[in-house]
Amino acid sequence: MHEMTPREIVTALDKYIISQADAKRAVAVAIRNRWRRLQLPETMREEVGPKNILMSGSTGVGKTEIARRMALLVSAPFLKVEATKFTEVGYVGRDVDSMIRDLLELAISMVQKEQTEVVREKADQQVEERILDELLPDSPTEPDESHSDADASRQRTREKFRLQLRDGELEDRLIELRVEQKVAPMGMLATTLGPDQMMPEMQDLMERIMPKQPKDRKVTIREARQVIFNQECEKLIDREKAVEMAIHRTENSGIVFVDEMDKLCGGGSSQHGPDVSRQGVQRDLLPIIEGTSVNTRHGVVKTDHILFVAAGAFHAAKPSDLMPELQGRLPIRVELSDLTEGDFVRILSEPENAITKQQIAMLATEGVTIKFTDDAVREIASIASEVNRRTENIGARRLQTITEKVMDDVSFEAPEISGQHVTIDKAYVNERLADIVKDADLSKFIL
Question: Directed axis angle between helix 97-135 and helix 274-290, to 10°?
């Protein structure tokens, strides 16, 4: 990913996201800037901060989808959070520091997966040897039998089992494995708090108080392969080094997408009640985005170079309603435009994950061949645009609702019409949506 140019990044996003060229360009430049910073001399590198982005636009225009696709493009820790889940101290909810702890956990998981691939060959060898040990446990040598003869016989049997293992002939055979299980806290140690709501010190204390207990289990060799593989990887991977790499990756390449930022705006002159909490969350977010040190169970993480992408609909509020200090930490502003009927037509047919392509693939599993004609796609787009205009504008999400209603009968009857071809044309769409087209109060039919 780091070698992708901004134009290549936009091209990759174009495969899944229609329109919103400005937002895609801003994201592409922000991603490329992460790579550029890492190429600078170390003294200058520390002075270059991330160009955080604030996206504003109606629901369903692609803000979250851009972030999701960006996550798939970057080989970096990526976390999506909703601003409404955070509250200031004294209100029920999660503290803002938890987003950095979650980001680090994702980075550790990412590093461990990479390290697992590095040690996979050696781990696979160990898996095979341990399964053979279980299939052919040590046995005392008979008094009238020489050690060399016994060893030779045992080795021949072991090699025979090895060939059967590799050919998959023993997959359903049961063997006994010793696995470690966590013991659930009881009595005074029990808590309803999740790990993300505990202080790092408390998490470590709970793990020390409640150690893992070994337990013998009988499992098939098919199941044993994964269990033993995980155990061997734990032995082969240097945990401390993996955590160190994850912290470095989090600090220098981490990306946090904060959705629903507009819900943190007071939206009026009220200075009491829930608005106090909203302003409190903004104050708590400010040092995280500005750059601070967050204590985690794995060590201290600095947020100075983590990229933050904030987004919100901003219907009842404006980006300027955010705290001035917070606005200053989100210097790149991008406004996403509402989607037109023409955009809907493209969304239904062009992206690699287009709704029509998903429907065709899903029903193909039942043996039903579906074909959407061009006039059917245009009609679905037209009706979706009209429904958005008359009721609530939920953007491209309306296409999912309309398409599901069109495909309702076929989806229900698919197992019974296996092998048939179904053509979805304009007449078919109008027939299925006749009530909606006729009735002015469309909200009765489509929410």
Answer: 70
Rounded to two decimals, the pTM is 0.80
Q: Side chain identity at 133, as an amino acid letter?
A: D
> Roughly how many angstroms between the first and final C-alpha of the chain, as a whole number?
40
Q: Are strands 293-296 and 174-181 parallel, antiparallel or unpaired?
A: unpaired
The predicted pLDDT at position 212 comes to 67
DSSP-derived 3-state class of residue 83: helix
Q: Which domains does the chain have, with CATH numbers?
A: 6-106+246-335 (3.40.50.300), 117-244 (no CATH), 341-444 (1.10.8.60)
In contact, 446 and 402? CB cutoff 8 Å: yes
- Contact assessment for residue 396 and residue 61, using Cβ atoms and an 8 Å cutoff: yes
Kindly list the distances between the CA atom of residue 221 and the CA atoms of 16, 227, 382, in Å, as whole numbers in the listed order: 41, 10, 56
Mark out the alpha helices in 136-290 (DSSP H runs): 147-166, 200-209, 221-236, 239-253, 274-290
Half-sphere exposure of residue 136: CA atoms within 13 angstroms, side-chain side:
16
Tokens of 38: 């890492």
CA–CA separation, 111 and 105 (whole Å): 10
H or E element that contains 309:
strand 307-312
- Which helix (H) or strand (E) segment holds residue 7: the answer is helix 6-14
Question: What six digits make up the tokens of 300?
Answer: 């201290």
- At which residue do the structure tokens 């996550």 appear? 71
Quick one: pLDDT band at residue 184, thresholds 50, 70, 90? low
Taking Cα atoms as reference points, which of 301, 352, 333 lies closest to residue 69?
352
**Whole-number CA gyration radius for the chain:** 29
For 411-425, the pLDDT digits (tens) are: 999 999 999 999 999
Q: How far is CA 140 from CA 21, 136, 150, 152, 427, in A?
A: 74, 12, 9, 14, 81
CA 202 – CA 198 distance, rounded (Å):
6
Tokens (6 digits) for 299 = 């060590």
Beta pairing class for 369-372 and 421-424: parallel
- Residue from 315, 334, 193, 201 nearest 262 by CA: 315
Nearest to 9 by CA among 42, 37, 34: 34
Q: Which two tokens stand for residue 53?
A: 């982005």
Token pair recorded at residue 214: 């070994």
Residue 60: HSE in the Cβ half-sphere, 13 Å Cα cutoff: 19
Residue 358's pLDDT band, with cuts at 50, 70 and 90, is very high
Give the count of alpha carbons within 13 A of 141, CB side only: 12
Residue percentage of the chain with pLDDT more than 90:
45
**Closest to 46 (Cα-Cα) out of 56, 35, 54, 38:** 38
Distance CA 20, CA 25 (A): 9
